Amino acid sequence: MAPSFNPRLVQIPPGVQCFVGEEARERRALEHVVTAVFEGWDYDEIIPPLYDYADVFEGPALAAKTYSFVGRDGSVLALRPDFTSLLAKVAAGRLAERKAPIRLYYAGEVLRYELPKAGRQSELYQMGLERLGGAREQGDVEVLAIAAECLSALGARGAVLALGHVGVFAGLVAGCALDPARVERIRAEVESKNAAGVRDALGGASVPEAVAEALVRLTRLAGGKGVLDEAAKSFAFSSAAHAAVDELRATVAALEEAGLADRIAIDLGEVRGLDYYTGLVFRVYAPGLGFEVGGGGRYDSLLARFGRPMPAVGFMLGLDRIALLLQRQGGLPASVRETVAEDDARDVGPALRRALERRASGKRVRFGNGNG
Amino acid sequence: MAEAAAATKAPLTVALSKGKLLSGSEGLFSRLGLPIPNGGGRRLVVEQGDARFLFVKDMDVPTYVEYGVADCGVAGRDVLLESESDVYEPLDLGFGRCRLVVARLVGSGFDYHRASTVRVASKYPKVATRFFLERGVSVEVVKLAGSVEIAPGLGLADCIVDVVETGRTLVENGLEVVAEVATSSARFIVNRASFHARRAEVADLLARLEGLA
Lengths: 372, 213
Prior knowledge:
The complex is a heterodimer.
Chain A: H1 22-40, E1 44-45, E2 51-53, H2 60-63, E3 68-70, E4 76-79, H3 84-92, E5 102-111, E6 123-132, H4 136-154, E7 160-165, H5 166-173, H6 180-191, H7 195-202, H8 209-217, E8 222-223, H9 226-234, H10 239-257, E9 264-267, E10 280-285, E11 294-298, E12 312-318, H11 319-328, E13 339-342, H12 348-360, E14 364-367
Parallel strand pairs in A: 1-5, 7-9, 13-14
Antiparallel strand pairs in A: 2-4, 3-4, 5-6, 6-12, 7-10, 8-9, 10-11, 11-12
Helix pairs in contact in A: 1-4, 1-11, 4-10, 5-10, 6-7, 7-8
Chain B: E1 12-17, H1 22-31, E2 45-48, E3 51-56, H2 61-67, E4 72-76, H3 77-83, E5 88-92, E6 98-105, E7 117-122, H4 125-133, E8 138-143, H5 151-154, E9 159-164, H6 168-172, E10 175-184, E11 186-190, H7 192-197, H8 199-212
Parallel strand pairs in B: 1-3, 1-4, 7-8, 7-9
Antiparallel strand pairs in B: 2-3, 4-11, 5-11, 6-9, 6-10
């Protein structure tokens, strides 16, 4: 009986990718550019395990997207859906004696249950760093400067870091006694910059008029640094929101002094990841690609989970998106490779000797079947 | 501050629906001094001044904008709710008003609160599914591409989730509204990256549209 056709031996499961030859070479080259920048800022590479106990990756944002499985000993394990939790665990545990700030970077795959869409895959290659502990002001500006340098080093044109601060939205809704479902609806509308939607979401809630006005205004507070002056005036009544704006203003001032003014934009309507981030948040955009190539922010409460409470800030870039951006912006420079063919079917020994000599002088050799 | 316009000389690309929002969109852009020639013709890409217009199916407008092949676009709220696209939605343009409703056959007595599983026919499977799941009702969606109104009468579904403007089509097919899912109108939507990386151009267009709205 003839063996039946098994499509799984040909098809690739949705969400994962396979890179061959030039594509693979290109990705390694891009990765090298980015990690060289990380090394240049004195960050240490960490190669964490591909899976860890599922408990490490807790949190509403990740739990639903984690591929978990039961280990031989009955413990629940999960393929890493992100690097930050793993780095936090190492910083709090194995590196407990190391003085803060601890500077760590990574480059590798994360796995998330996600349908392929708009540059998202289940298997993502991320390159990022975390600055654990240390002064906030220095940490925030350093991470932003490194992100900007990565984009320049990669040759991306017109890249913009859009900066926000979760303390603005959180400060405004704090003390309003809104139920979490309502806060989420308001947040989603602010996120869409939908002023009318924010008004709808506030409908019937007993929120002070000043707060309601401020939440609606958040949908328009994006642009140059003038936005921060406007925000400072509008949010004078909320000390928490005002403090967040001041913090962001100091960060922007420092970046301007350092000559990075043309790389930054303000977006106070950037309100994603409120349950995770605690301060600065940012996303990296560039003309030519419709979605961000990376982003990050400050997460001062995560480390406490691992028993070493300390502030932290970090960011990551997605390799797929970087490659796509550079391709859209005018193509990646094709690598020039000279190959010497060494082929003599009758005299294999001497041919191999010549090939070895060429290898010793650093040449790229293709051995055998040169005419094939 | 970032002025990335210099980084790209591509015209600002606007995705418009070929469907029911077309005449409203054409009116809007002609009032901005950007009349779209041949908007209803066969050419699907039209350049006009500094802008380029794409004419696509209404359900596809959010997709073009989400992926950034269009910097912005005009899409109905109904379509945005169905597409769940990650785009900015800064302006209600006010035209193309309609409602997304649940409708049943007149006299059928169908009550989704009492059904164990609702069979619903719709062009909006995600909207329909969300509506019933949020109310604790199991749902089976029969996805149709059009003429949804005939489904209950033929026994294909217990009810429909669809858009209504005047309600005449419902009446003519013997249907009545039992619940409102959402109200809809045309929205100006913007790609996230374009919003920041082409801020000057996008902000200018947004301000001019706001002046009209």
